[in-house]
Design a protein that fits this description.
This protein is α/β, with parallel strands linked by helices. It has a single domain, classed as Rossmann fold, CATH 3.40.50.880. It is 24% helix and 27% strand. The chain contains eight helices and 17 strands. The longest helix is centred in the first third of the chain and has 14 residues. The radius of gyration is 21 Å and the shape is globular.
């Protein structure tokens, strides 16, 4: 008997959607912690099995303690730490087994180049990819956000103006292909470095994420913005640029690029590169509507 597409009534469960929760850094951990609370919920709530990866940080003990506290506060009971010191350790089967058992994986901020050097192309890195494919939510903040894409910005100048050869790319985990993710976007003026990459490689789409803001990516096809700030999508597929001729360090010509500024409540199609829905989450406040009678002196 053939089951019609989309009909799972004959003992067949629908496929588990894949989820990435990519955070732009400096997310709230001591208040309502909405983004981290969302991560715990996506990981299974009280049934969550969370793995914290603090490898990118210079303060690993403090990072583990802080995230253990906030995840526990929001209901997670099982939290493990995976922190290989180098690539050889990241190839150990025991570490990969811990990740294989996780329902949620969280990578901290810090040095994204160190994170990529340790995890990309190792057994532990492969286990993260397997976990994502089977439906575990994979999340990261700052450095942990940038490593999600196939290629990531490991070094780069900050500023508004895109400049030739102002950035360095490193291979990431490849959980989200065809994009470059940049973090602390508005706060550290990283528009220029992300635009310089996508102008020079117009087959790539740039995604910049503000602090205390995240994109929740479903099935690598669409994302919703959550948090206090905005996410930005940079599309240079039809732009004109002088990248092939510009000298090193020169301001780049970029004409015809499309930039989407997407606050919380925005849902964006990553395949068609269009806004698909928007629910206003920042209504005007502090405005009093008065009648003519009540406004008389």
């Amino acid at each position: 008997m053939n089951t019609p597409a989309g009909d799972y009534s004959v003992g067949m469960a629908p496929p588990t959607p894949t989820k990435l929760l990519i955070i732009g850094g400096a997310e709230d951990r001591v208040g309502k912690a909405r983004i981290l609370k969302r991560f715990v919920k996506l990981a299974g709530g009280r049934r969550a099995k969370i793995v914290v990866i603090p490898t990118a940080s210079s303060f690993q003990d403090e990072v583990v303690a802080a995230y253990t506290e906030v995840f526990t506060r929001h209901g997670a009971a099982q939290i493990a730490v995976v922190n290989p010191p180098d690539r050889l350790a990241a190839d150990e089967a025991a570490l990969a087994a811990v990740i294989d058992d996780a329902s949620g994986i969280f990578m901290s901020g810090g040095n994204q180049l160190k994170l990529a050097q340790v995890f990309a192309g190792t057994a532990a890195g492969d286990a993260i990819s397997r976990a994502h494919a089977r439906g575990a939510v994979v999340s990261g903040t700052s450095a942990g956000a940038s490593i999600m894409s196939e290629f990531m910005i490991s070094l780069g100048d900050e500023g508004v103006t895109p400049r030739q050869r102002s950035t360095q790319l490193t291979h990431g985990l490849g959980l989200l292909s065809g994009v470059i993710v940049d973090q602390h976007f508005a706060q550290r003026q990283r528009y220029g470095r992300l635009m310089s990459i996508v102008a020079s490689s117009p087959n790539l789409i740039g995604i910049g994420i503000d602090e205390d803001t995240a994109i929740e990516v479903t099935d690598r096809e669409s994302f919703e913005v959550v948090g206090r700030g905005a996410a930005y999508v940079l599309d240079c597929r039809r732009a004109i640029t002088d990248a092939p001729e510009a000298r090193s360090g020169a301001p780049l010509l970029v004409s015809g690029a499309v930039v989407h500024s997407l606050p919380a409540g925005s849902t964006f199609d990553l395949k068609k590169l269009v806004l698909t829905a928007f629910v206003e989450q920042h209504p005007d406040s502090g405005i009093t509507v008065t009648t003519a009678a009540s406004s008389r002196p």
